[in-house]
Amino acid sequence: MVFAVLMGPLKIAMAQSSVTLYGILDVGVQYTTRADGTHSAVNLQNYGNVPTIFGLTGTEDLGGGLSAIFQLSQSFSMSNGQAGIPGSAFGWQSYVGLKGNFGTVTAGRQFSVLFDQTVMFDPTYFAAYGGQSQLNPLSDIIENNSIKYRSNSLGGFVLEGLVSTDGVAGNFRSGRTFELGAQYSNGPFSLGAVLRQKNGSETETANTSAQDEKIGVIGAAYKIGPATLLAGVERLTGDLSPAKTVIWGGGRYGVTPALELRAAVYQTLSNDPQVGDPTLYVAGVIYSLSVRTQLYLNAGYSRNSSHSSQTVYEYGVAPLDGKDQFGAMLGITHRF
């Protein structure tokens, strides 16, 4: 489902198989206050509506309802052409698997179940002005060395599971991740939940594999005519990160088939002064010039507390130290 949201394919079909070359190009002009903690800035910014990526996906019909599938994809910056993850050939997703009446099993580098079950209940999806940085630490969006299962719909229920590890000899728990998620859909209503446990890693200089991070999430959505209301709560505990709770809510409204409005609020609550209790307010307008091309305007205001440094731009870095920040971005997205 997440993959369908992010891609707009161009298929090259062959006998019993197909290969799809696809891409998303997204760039805009951004204005932010306190961009360096003090001064405002205007810059050309990659990724405002959806991440910029290109890749290949394919399927082969093996008969009897069974198919082989794969995806190879990379993220990069439209502003400077650099890879999203330097040094990686396919740093977005790279997996292969089987799909059939039993569901889908894939192995490789792929989206975490945590990402699957939060992004679909986020009013902004994966827009850069949104709450994914609070709900999904950057290292938790995509899992290396992972095996993932997703069931077909069973009476409206879809189940997901994932396991991954660093592959360190003699230390199976190094970087080990266990995830279990479920989603239920019935008419206009849908509900999703996920439990995740991740251990630290063993390296040449440190060993945190005995420590872990636990995350639990519940998200819900309800569609009323052209409007969709969404909300959720996430709780993070453990040794690897400061404990926190994130509560969010908002909605999307289709004014016309070409025009959509989005708005959301994300509230973080933590006793750790570096995390604090920041509140992020975001709003967006998306106008479709065609099926493949969209214009968008994002705006956000981050109200920080204590020593928190929540930025308006997702995964942004600025030494705000309790100061507020405003940002706005006007951009274009094109899919091929």
Task: Please describe the structure with a list of short key phrases separated by commas or semicolons.
16-stranded antiparallel beta barrel; Porin_Gram-ve; membrane; Porin; 336 residues; mainly beta
Structural commentary:
- It is a multi-pass membrane protein.
- This protein is mainly beta.
- The protein has one domain: Porin.
- It is 5% helix and 54% strand.
- The protein is built from three helices and 18 strands.
- The longest helix is centred in the middle third of the chain and has 7 residues.
Q: CATH fold name, please?
A: Porin
Roughly what percent helix?
under 10%
CATH C-level label: Mainly Beta
> Could you tell me the number of beta strands?
18
Helix/strand structural class: mainly beta
- First-to-last CA distance: 18 Å
Low-confidence stretches: 7-15
CATH architecture label name: Beta Barrel
- How does the overall form come out from the CA principal axes? globular
Counting DSSP H or I runs of 4 or more residues, the number of helices is 3
Give the domain tally.
Answer: 1
Short summary:
With 336 residues, this protein is mainly beta. The protein contains three helices and 18 strands. A 16-stranded antiparallel barrel has the order 2-4-5-6-7-8-9-10-11-12-13-14-15-16-17-18.
Write the layout of secondary structure elements.
Blueprint: H1 2-6, E1 10-13, E2 17-32, E3 41-46, E4 53-63, E5 66-75, E6 93-100, E7 103-111, H2 113-119, H3 132-135, E8 142-150, E9 157-164, E10 177-186, E11 189-199, E12 212-224, E13 227-238, E14 244-256, E15 259-269, E16 279-288, E17 293-303, E18 325-335
Antiparallel strand pairs: 1-2, 2-3, 2-4, 2-18, 4-5, 5-6, 6-7, 7-8, 8-9, 9-10, 10-11, 11-12, 12-13, 13-14, 14-15, 15-16, 16-17, 17-18
Membrane topology: Multi-pass membrane protein
Organism: Paraburkholderia antibiotica
GO molecular function, one term: porin activity
